[in-house]
Amino acid sequence: MEAGSAVSAVRSQRVLCGNDIRPAVILIKEGKIFKILPDASPNVDATCEVLDVGDMLVMPGIVDCHVHVNEPGRTTWEGYWTATRAAAAGGVTTIVDMPLNSIPPTTTLSNFQEKMKAATGQCFVDTAFWGGVVPGNQLELQPMIQAGVAGFKCFLIHSGVDEFPHVTNSDLHEAMKQLQGTGSVLLFHAEREVTQPSGEDGDPSDYSTFLKSRPDIMEQEAINTVAQLCQQYQVRCHIVHLSSAQPLGVIQAARQAGAPLTVETTHHYLSLAAEDVPPRATQYKCCPPIRGKANQEQLWSALKAGQIDMVVSDHSPCTPDLKRLDSGDFIQAWGGISSLQFGLSLFWTTASKKGFSLTDTVRILCQKTAQLCCLDNQKGSLLPGHDADLVIWDPEKEFEVKEENIQHKNKLTPYLGFHLKGEVYATLVRGKIVYKQGSFSSLPLGKHLLVGQATPQASL
Ligand SMILES: [Zn+2]
User: Fold this and answer.
1) Three-class DSSP category at 76
2) One MF term in GO for this entry (predicted)?
């Protein structure tokens, strides 16, 4: 069965059903999971076309709720066509696009409509959209919720792009008042300026110079503010890309006090460590920064304990010139790491060694991320009635990250040459094969996901 085909049933010796892995047949009707038969029943073959994948593992497709597609406006950095093909090749069946780095940013209803138009006819996987909170746009928030944004992101520090300014405390109070009672969620880039000697005095081509310029205290200070606001307004709040383990205590205390607060970390904080970043290797630069190995161990422990809810890519590419590879200047280089295509394999390569199960993997990469965006009634689980979004992969197979296999528009990534465990064989979105063994469906089959709408999947 070729990429682009609609599938009526998927058979495997290893289907992840709840906590069990067992032989099963997933029956698909009109793009949704109709039934999961507990056994590989021979009767299925007579009634429909079956994709038999032997003993490849079948589980829900990944929901990556932190992706910067950058279109419209910065399409030389990334775009819907390339980003969603990379997603499909990596077993990601839903992405949620960040509101910044595109021009215009998704901070008004009209900008949101512009973004959806730009994405139309270009998506190989399903795509939802975050809005943004910037100074003075509070009256745009409810119209954007009604139009289907998944929630909003804001910055407490310069965002890196001038058209998406960061908010002050008073902006945050205004936004919180608008969000109260809506069920929506506010995402925080949780770093705040602190008065500390800057690291810019050191050699800018040494990673340690950059690392010293973004100390843990910047995350700690920001998260203190988030925890307090979340408790005060009881609006769902979410900390994106936690890098430092130091604020975990504050997060836990706020949660125990009843704050509806969630937190994500990223594949790069779990897979890469400051000690291993070579001089001038600005492809490792992101904000907050990749920290040391001891900190990374604490992130893994917190993930295991459920204190960190989910792991995302924070795929944030740019053109190679902005990485300043000629000078290797970490201070001047754009901050952002490309990894959308490799999230599942990056996670599994280390998580499998640390005793995480495939069920944990689904919880961390699919279910919790779907819940954050209120897409969990249709995405992130293998359940009858849910969209038939599947990743079919071999968790034991190893492969090397090679430039010719990277589908991102810009191929620069710190993972080049890495040997990863877990190779994607095929990806299905709503019952259609969008990717199989290096081939893609000829047409982009993804849809826009409008959260909270009567018809959640708007037509193309
Ligand atoms: Zn980001």
Assistant:
1) coil
2) allantoinase activity
Torsion angle, CA of 258/261/267/269, rounded to 10 degrees? -80
Q: In the prediction, which pLDDT does 316 show? A: 94
Query: pLDDT of 251-304, one tens digit each?
Result: 999 999 999 999 999 999 999 999 999 999 999 999 999 999 999 999 999 999
pLDDT of residue 460: 43
Q: Which domains does the chain have, with CATH numbers?
A: 61-372 (3.20.20.140)
Phi, psi of 58 (to 5 degrees): -115, 125
Strands 126-129 and 185-189: unpaired
Q: Token digits for 111?
A: 């900008």
Tell me, yes or no, if the pTM score tops 0.70: yes
State in Å: Cα 38 to ligand 1 middle. 40
Secondary structure (DSSP) of 360-405:
HHHIIIIIHHHHHTT-TTTSSS--TTSB--EEEEEEEEEEE--GGG
CA of 357 to the centre of ligand 1 (A): 27
Query: Tens digit of pLDDT for each residue in 4-18?
Result: 999 999 999 999 988
Based on the number of CB atoms within 10 Å of its own CB, is 294 exposed (0-12), middle (13-18) or buried (19 or more)?
Answer: exposed
Q: Which amino acid is at 408?
A: H
Q: Which residues contact 43 (CB under 8 A, 6 or more apart)?
A: none
- Centre of ligand 1 to C-alpha 316, Å, is 6
Q: Residues 97, 129: contact at Cβ < 8 Å?
A: yes
Strands of the sheet containing 310-312, edge to edge, are: 131-132, 152-155, 185-189, 236-240, 261-266, 310-312
Residues with CB in 5 Å of ion ligand 1 = 314
Instruction: Give 159 Cα–ligand 1 centroid separation in angstroms.
Output: 10
